[in-house]
């Protein structure tokens, strides 16, 4: 067993504040008081933001409060700065940044908030968490039940914080298409703010010292892990829950060949010619890794496949068996371990590789740069390596993950006056100057950014940008967790799922046994999702969410 470097651990204690994906630790900070002095027109001209507009779409003689509910550490410092600046412009509107400690607490908070009067729920939320907590991962159901607002119409509204340009003008049309597809294809639950990717971080100094080349193939990755294991590194790959994205890329190399089965088709009740034209006649083209970037899945067709096939299929057996060949080099109980420990193991040199996301690249860069010169090391990233000889049922090329990151949605409320204020603050945040402020304040405060901004005009330091560029893959894998079964169990059954994954990773059971034992938990989750969505498993009929 490779010994932990205790002196380096002590050095890191003061410098590190690393957290798991979209989670963190720390105390809730106080939100600045409303009532800051109104910004004058001269000051507004200097700062690039407009003074309070007497033509505001809300009653400026009345006070109101906007609540932005976020998970600790991710952009929270920047968001608090935005709240201060916005309240200076609009002193009649108080902006409260409600910081929730971690993922689980956030899910619970959303379930509680929406079980009572929705008008009392937070106004701007992590939309993906609301959808997961309330609708079994269906954005369509979230729209049907009126939980979240369709933001597509806002794209053609003027953004007063960007020289009067339209809201859509700061976005690449391809990113808007991704956002539209992500939330059902006909409505848009979020506007893009950033992108995230996942890759293998590697310690270049250790690789050179041990004579190991950067893996070019999946088979090379296995060989490298075996070499490091032989040289005394107990866990060649430091990994946590984020490793599911590597599983997803393996799954993508199989499921993408049949993804035409899961698309909305002409004649389906939710068919929209304007946004789903790419679906017509679609077939996977293995020579073009981006051929499916504009297609739109159909939740009900996916549910039909899950109901008919369950999780214990031959394809899933191949996917999980292939993944387990790498997962055996992960730490014990990796699926339930806080990623902060995994990052620490990489930074201390205990693990030569780290399977992680771009959302921690900035923090790792800062951690290492703050160490004494003799403790620093060179590091870089490599993409998920493709197969030299793919297992039967999978294609050779693995596509990586590079998707929209910060998924902020607006909760639907009854008051038009209140909704006008919320949307105005959202526009303020998603304008170039304020997005830049969000990044700068976040980085300066040691909070985490998730990846490069997709808002035109935002720039990062050359050193950080170079690191983030390593997360951009040749093609982007689609999300197949719903079919592989990863975490697709009820919250009550999640400990059983973790036990099964850990047993598979340690070689205590094989992929066939794993899937057979997972099946009842997966089927229960799927049936609850079908019932909640009101699916009759006939996509040509319009269903009503329960």
Please provide a brief summary of the model:
The protein is built from 21 helices and 9 strands. 41% of the residues lie in helices and 9% in strands. Strand 1 (64-71), helix 3 and strand 2 (93-100) form a beta-alpha-beta unit.
Question: How would you describe this structure to a colleague?
Answer:
This is Extracellular solute-binding protein. Residues 28-58 are annotated as: Disordered. Belongs to the bacterial solute-binding protein 1 family. Residues 43-52 have a biased composition (Polar residues). Keywords: Signal, Transport. The chain is an alpha/beta fold. It folds into 2 domains: 24-190 and 407-449, Periplasmic binding protein-like II (D-Maltodextrin-Binding Protein, domain 2), CATH 3.40.190; 197-402 and 471-533, Periplasmic binding protein-like II (D-Maltodextrin-Binding Protein, domain 2, 3-Layer(aba) Sandwich), CATH 3.40.190. The chain is built from 21 helices and 9 strands. The chain has helices at 6-15, 41-47, 76-89, 103-115, 127-135, 139-144, 173-182, 204-210, 218-230, 244-255, 273-276, 299-309, 314-327, 339-347, 361-370, 416-429, 432-444, 462-469, 481-484, 494-505, 511-533; strands spanning 64-71, 93-100, 124-126, 195-203, 237-239, 353-357, 379-382, 401-404, 408-410. The strands form 3 sheets. Strands 4, 5, 6, 7 and 8 form a 5-stranded mixed sheet that branches. It has a two-stranded parallel ribbon with strand order 1-2. The chain has a two-stranded antiparallel sheet with strand order 3-9. β1 (64-71), α3 (76-89) and β2 form a beta-alpha-beta unit. α10 (244-255) packs antiparallel against α13, α12 crosses α21 and α20 (494-505) packs antiparallel against α21 (511-533). The model is unreliable at 1-52 (pLDDT under 50).
């Amino acid at each position: 067993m490779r010994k932990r470097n205790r002196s380096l651990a002590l050095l890191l204690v003061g410098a590190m504040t690393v957290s798991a994906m979209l989670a963190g630790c720390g105390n809730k900070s106080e939100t600045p008081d409303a009532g800051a002095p109104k910004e004058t027109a001269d000051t507004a001209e200097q700062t690039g933001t407009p003074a309070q507009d007497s033509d505001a779409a809300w009653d400026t003689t009345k006070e109101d409060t906007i609540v932005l509910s976020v998970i600790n550490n991710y952009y929270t410092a920047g968001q608090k700065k935005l709240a201060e600046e916005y309240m200076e412009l609009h002193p009649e509107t108080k902006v409260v940044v409600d910081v929730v400690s971690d993922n689980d607490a956030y899910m619970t908070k959303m379930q509680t908030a929406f079980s009572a009067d929705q008008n009392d729920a937070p106004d701007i939320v992590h939309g993906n968490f609301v959808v997961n907590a309330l609708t079994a991962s269906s954005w369509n159901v979230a729209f049907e039940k009126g939980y979240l607002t369709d933001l597509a119409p806002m794209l053609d509204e003027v953004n007063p914080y960007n020289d009067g340009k339209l809201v859509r003008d700061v976005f690449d049309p391809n990113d808007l298409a991704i956002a539209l597809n992500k939330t059902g294809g006909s409505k848009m639950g979020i506007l893009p703010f950033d992108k995230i990717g996942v890759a293998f971080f590697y310690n270049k100094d250790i690789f050179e010292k041990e004579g190991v080349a950067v893996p070019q193939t999946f088979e090379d990755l296995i060989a490298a892990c075996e070499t490091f294991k032989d040289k005394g590194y107990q866990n060649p790959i430091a990994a946590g829950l984020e490793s599911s994205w590597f599983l997803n890329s393996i799954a993508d190399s199989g499921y993408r060949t049949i993804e035409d089965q899961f698309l909305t088709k002409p004649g389906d009740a939710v068919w929209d010619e304007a946004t789903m034209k790419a679906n017509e006649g679609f077939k996977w083209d293995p020579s073009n890794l981006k051929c499916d970037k504009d297609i739109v899945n159909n939740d009900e067709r996916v549910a039909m496949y899950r109901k008919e096939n369950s999780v214990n299929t031959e394809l899933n057996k191949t996917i999980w068996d292939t993944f387990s060949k790498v997962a055996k080099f992960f730490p014990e109980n990796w699926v339930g371990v806080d990623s902060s420990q995994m990052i620490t193991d990489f930074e201390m040199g205990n693990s030569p590789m780290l399977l992680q996301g771009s959302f921690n690249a900035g923090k790792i860069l800062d951690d290492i740069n703050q160490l004494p010169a003799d403790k620093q090391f060179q590091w870089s990233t490599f993409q998920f390596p493709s197969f030299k000889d793919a297992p039967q049922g999978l294609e050779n090329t693995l596509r990586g993950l590079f998707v929209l990151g910060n998924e902020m949605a607006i909760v639907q409320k009854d008051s038009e006056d209140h909704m006008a204020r919320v949307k105005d603050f959202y526009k303020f945040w998603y304008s170039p100057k304020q997005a830049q402020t969000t990044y700068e304040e976040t980085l300066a405060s040691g909070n985490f950014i998730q990846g490069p901004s997709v808002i035109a005009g935002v720039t990062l330091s050359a050193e950080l940008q170079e690191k983030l560029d390593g997360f951009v893959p040749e093609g982007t894998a689609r999300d197949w967790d719903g079919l592989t079964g990863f975490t697709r169990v009820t919250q009550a059954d999640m400990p059983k799922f973790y036990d099964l994954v850990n047993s598979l990773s340690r070689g205590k059971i094989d992929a066939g046994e794993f899937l057979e034992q997972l099946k009842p938990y997966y089927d229960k989750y799927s049936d609850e999702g079908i019932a909640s969505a009101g699916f009759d498993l006939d996509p040509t009929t319009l269903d009503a969410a329960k």
